[in-house]
């Protein structure tokens, strides 16, 4: 396993749609292990492959549900459907350090995917787990949480986003390859 650098807002890979995975091999399992290590090192709860520069439809998550319980997930080629309910909740992103805002997301959704061995998964996610999964699937589609904010809110954040795109990290935030992040 190795820690991979997290791509920061402005990096073009974050705006590209990730490709379907068709080989469930040691290379994929190494990517998953590296992503899990990187996510934990940055104290995140989810990470999509394009956040570490890999355009494959892979995400990992380690979502706290009830202390000390966690839901750990590896989703390959995830497809979301049957969304229901909605609520606002604060989100941040390892690729957009220092910015947090309220985002409206479904409270329940159905997830179909494969695990790192290629075995099919089909389950319903609710609450914070659903929020994290949809946030990471957005990444795989080339969308960021700030894209879900109103035009006015995005204009308000423009200076901070432009600074990130220029490589200027917020004060108190370490460089991307060093632990210290959000979702």
Task: Please describe what this structure looks like.
The protein has 183 residues and is an alpha+beta fold. The chain is 25% helix and 28% strand. It has one domain (12-165): Peptide Deformylase (Alpha-Beta Complex), CATH 3.90.45.10. It has three helices and seven strands, in the order αβββββββαα. Strands 1-2-3-6-7 form a five-stranded antiparallel sheet, sandwiched between helices. A two-stranded antiparallel sheet has the order 4-5. A hairpin with a 2-residue loop joins strand 2 and strand 3 (69-84). The radius of gyration is 16 Å and the shape is globular. Mean pLDDT is 92; it is low at 175-181.
Short descriptors:
single chain; 183 residues; alpha+beta; Peptide Deformylase; 5-stranded antiparallel beta sheet; two-stranded antiparallel ribbon; 3 helices; 7 strands; 25% helix; globular; disordered C terminus
């Amino acid at each position: 396993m190795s820690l991979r650098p997290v791509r920061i807002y402005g990096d073009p890979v974050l705006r590209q749609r990730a490709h379907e995975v068709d080989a469930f091999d040691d290379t994929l399992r190494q990517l998953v292990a590296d992503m899990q290590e990187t996510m934990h090192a940055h104290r995140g709860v989810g990470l999509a492959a394009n956040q570490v520069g890999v355009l494959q439809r892979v995400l990992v998550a380690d979502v706290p549900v009830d202390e000390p319980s966690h839901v750990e997930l590896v989703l390959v080629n995830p497809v979301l459907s049957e969304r229901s309910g909605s609520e606002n909740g604060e989100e941040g992103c390892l690729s957009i350090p220092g910015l947090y805002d309220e985002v409206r997301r479904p409270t329940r959704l159905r997830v179909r995917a494969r695990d790192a061995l290629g075995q099919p998964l089909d389950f319903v996610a609710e609450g914070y787990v659903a929020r994290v999964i949809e946030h990471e699937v957005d990444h795989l589609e080339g969308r960021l949480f700030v894209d879900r904010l109103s035009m006015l809110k995005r204009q308000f954040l423009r200076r901070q986003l432009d600074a990130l795109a220029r490589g200027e990290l917020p004060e108190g935030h370490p460089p991307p390859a060093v632990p210290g992040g959000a979702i």
